[in-house]
Amino acid sequence: MSRAGGNAQTATSGAEGSAGRPGCLGTLGLLFALHAWMSVNVAIGFGPLIALLYAFMPPYAAFSLAVAVTEYWRLGLPAMALWLAMLAGTWRCRHHPALTSPIGRGLLLPILLVWAPLLSCELVRVAAMRHALLRAQVDCHQARPIWESIREADERYRQPHAWMIKDGRRHIWSYGRMGFVPDGRPPSWGGRCGQ
User: Per the record's keyword annotation, is Transmembrane helix included, yes or no (predicted)?
Assistant: First the structure.
């Protein structure tokens, strides 16, 4: 009799344990919702084309990050160091009640994987440009945030990442060199003092 009672108790506890967990379809639904949420954040941060590629080819995100860090290493390495510091800070707070709930984790994931890297790159950009502008003592200048540059992702477009005029000559910002270089484009393609 005790053996039958033990079997009944085991079956009951097993049913209770499985009722609290999502099944296979529920887990797939959660993963799909999380992937869609990440795609929306990538679209806002990096533009619709990159978000589309991420949505249908998720490994593209890791590949493009590796290419960007190796091609623009002067920007990528300091930004990655800042991002890793943010990740380490978040890891230390991982037991906070706001971060242990499913909603908290769902909100935290795009913050850590989309917005924190963007913020890290922007901080490095601002520091490097400010240093270059102060050292050059320019006549005038203009700069754009890094997410605008990422959306266009072409060094030859008409709107440079940043420009400055020094002694009547225009220089544009290069993320490859992390500095201003002479602008060889037609004068109508860039900024001028007093615009």
Answer: yes
Domain boundary among 129, 163, 179: 129
pLDDT tens for each residue of 94-131:
888 888 888 888 889 899 989 999 999 999 999 999 99
Q: Residue 167: left if φ>0, alpha if ψ -120 to 50, beta else—which one?
A: left
Sequence-distant (6+) residues with CB within 8 A of 184 are none
Beta bridge partners of 173: 180
Specify whether 85 is located in the same domain as 176. no
Q: Which sign does the torsion angle of CA 54, 55, 56, 59 carry?
A: positive
Same domain, yes or no: 119 and 36: yes
Inter-residue contact 182 to 164 (CB < 8 Å) = no
The torsion region of residue 96 among left (phi > 0), alpha (psi -120 to 50) and beta comes to beta
Tokens of 69: 């860090």
